[in-house]
Amino acid sequence: MVIKQLSDCDYKAKLREFIEDLFSTWKQESSFSKENICCPQRPINEIMGKVDKVDGNMSEFIVAFDEETGSIFGMLHITFDSNKSAHISLVNVSPKYRRIKVGFSLLSYSMVLSVKKGIDYIMLETWNGNNRAISLFEKFGFVKTSANENTIELKTNLPSILKEAYPNTDTLDYSILNNDVLKSISVF
Ligand SMILES: CC(C)(COP(=O)(O)OP(=O)(O)OC[C@H]1O[C@@H](n2cnc3c(N)ncnc32)[C@H](O)[C@@H]1OP(=O)(O)O)[C@@H](O)C(=O)NCCC(=O)NCCS
Fold it and tell me: Coil, strand, or helix at residue 159?
């Protein structure tokens, strides 16, 4: 498995294929399922528009792919605000690739990329009862900031230990997020 940011690789066409497959074959098992009553059903064109808009500065897709075939099996979208916050959405892993740490790796990469960009905290939302995703987010120190009947909003601060641990190089090594660092995030 390789994790990359879309602006660093020539994978827009592959990501469009992944999104088309999601909408045509596993929509009900994705974040666009009927279970997700926290946001109105979003049309595929809106998601494709986000792929077109990726510039690596204000918005980015993080993708997981098979190096041999080049096919994508996981994605998330992250936007960066000028006030040092980031927002993650569209976290989706193909059903065939679940429970092998794809989601974990996408989140790890996003955390380290955010540190590199000087971000202080990350926000995201999911629907109430999406326990597998909530369990994933909690591993990265996300805690509930608000909730209503349908939606739960979570936030994590990027702790100084991660900022210090991140080496000042051009390569983005997301494996730096080892268990020791994660434990320190959890108590933040
Ligand atoms: C949620 C989702 C992204 C998890 O992706 P994944 O690659 O299967 O997750 P990982 O293998 O990286 O698992 C990491 C952690 O997530 C949690 N987790 C993932 N799947 C889980 C499940 N079925 N049940 C309980 N916990 C689960 C666990 O804490 C797990 O850690 P562990 O392996 O030490 O138990 C994936 O199930 C998915 O795409 N779901 C549909 C879309 C969705 O809900 N997106 C989030 C909307 S905001």
Answer: coil
Within 6 Å (CB) of ligand 1, which residues are found?
Answer: 30-31, 91-93, 98-104, 126, 130, 132-133, 135-136, 139
Q: Which amino acid is at 86?
A: A
Task: Report CA(169)–ligand 1 centroid distance (Å).
Answer: 30
The span from the CA of 88 to the CA of 91, in Å, is: 8
> How far is 159 from 176, CA to CA, in rounded Å?
14
Q: Name the nearest CA neighbour of 141 among 184, 92, 93.
A: 184
Distance 133 CA to ligand 1 centre (A): 5
**Model pLDDT for residues 22-66, shown as the tens digit of each residue:** 999 999 999 999 888 766 678 899 999 999 999 888 999 999 999
Q: Which domains does the chain have, with CATH numbers?
A: 2-186 (3.40.630.30)
Each residue's pLDDT tens digit, 117-158 = 889 999 999 999 999 999 999 988 899 999 888 899 999 998
